[in-house]
Amino acid sequence: MPVFVSGLPLHVLVVHAVVVLVPLSVVAALVVALWPAARRRYGWLAVGVTAVAGVCIPVATSSGEDLRDRLVPTELIRQHAQLGDELLVFVAGLFVVLTALVWLGRQHKVPTRILTPVLIVLTVALAGVSAVQVVRIGDSGARAAWSGVQYTAVQQHHGDG
Asked: Where are the membrane-spanning stretches (predicted)?
């Protein structure tokens, strides 16, 4: 996998897919879990979005590891990498539980009345954890990238009006 694309780190580009798709999966999972009509109509779409988000995570972590190997190691980078490695577990769990919830929603057997509430609770919990983890990862990545940057007042350049 290339580390840079047109001079930009691939990780910086790929991570945007994760930053968009994981929260979208979280919202979709919550809607599907808490609204039975949406579960019947859009459940498989929510499962699909969650699957795509899950596939993007290893690409982001792999490209991040490639980039990390080219940077001076810092504690901030180590923390960011550790948090990033944990996200796949939560989103994969969300995918499995959400898939089971949507599939059971198509069944009309007695055990679904027992399992459905359990799966709803697990879906909500994993969606919440996934959302929090994405925020934590993004915050740690921003701190790792920008912690040493010093801002100054806007400077006038020759030719500027």
From this structure: 12-35, 42-61, 87-105, 114-135
pTM: 0.85
Rounded-to-integer distance, Cα 17 and Cα 9, Å: 14
The one-digit pLDDT tens for each residue of the chain (161 residues) are 777 888 888 888 889 999 999 999 999 999 999 999 999 999 999 999 999 999 999 999 998 888 888 888 889 889 989 999 999 999 999 999 999 999 998 776 656 678 999 999 999 999 999 999 999 999 998 888 888 766 667 777 776 55
Smallest Cα–Cα separation from 25: which of 89, 86, 92, 116? Answer: 92
